[in-house]
Amino acid sequence: MRVCVYAASSAKVAPEFHAAARLLGETLAANGCSVVYGGGSQGLMGSLADGALSKGGEVVGILPKFMADLEWGHPGLTHLELVEDMRERKHKLLTGSDAVVALPGGCGTLEELFEAITLKRLGIYFSPIILLNIRGFYSPLQAFMGSVIAERFMNPEHAAMWSLVDRVEDVLPTIAATPKWREDAREYAVVR
Fold first, then answer.
1. CB-side neighbour CA atoms (13 Å) of 73
2. Which whole-number Å values give the CA distances from 141 to 66, 133, 176, in the listed order?
3. Dihedral, CA atoms, 102, 106, 108, 111, nearest 10 degrees?
4. Rounded to an integer, what is the distance from CA 184 to the centroid of its chain?
């Protein structure tokens, strides 16, 4: 299984976030999953990659060339693919993935996450999207999305496009328990 992981590059975040990212990498690798992520060496990205690599996992980084020029790439990856820009990076991260996991992160992580959710709503992406809710990080977002649905900017069915889990240990079981997104998603993509 190929798992796309969105993660922060900030090294200044709380140690619990780094520990969760490393454990996620270890867990995915130990269960035979390939990890595809943004290719960075710092922050949660680096912790994720280091965890997977420590267990002999396959780790694929997708890195824009300008970031490679700044030496932001992780030097020990199984494979590092350089792309032209952030748009191409997002496309390559998601293409061919069997699931998405969003670790806590800033605007880049959230932008990637919302693109995946949007593509799922439009019936373009059908795989599970998991938000790893370490220290309740995604709880405010979950509440906000509930408001978006309550105010009829999205349909009630759209709440099933993602799942929140509080522990790394719940990621793979939740992926396994999540059915593929409905093939008729476009029929209710627009709120009526």
1. 21
2. 31, 10, 23
3. 70
4. 24
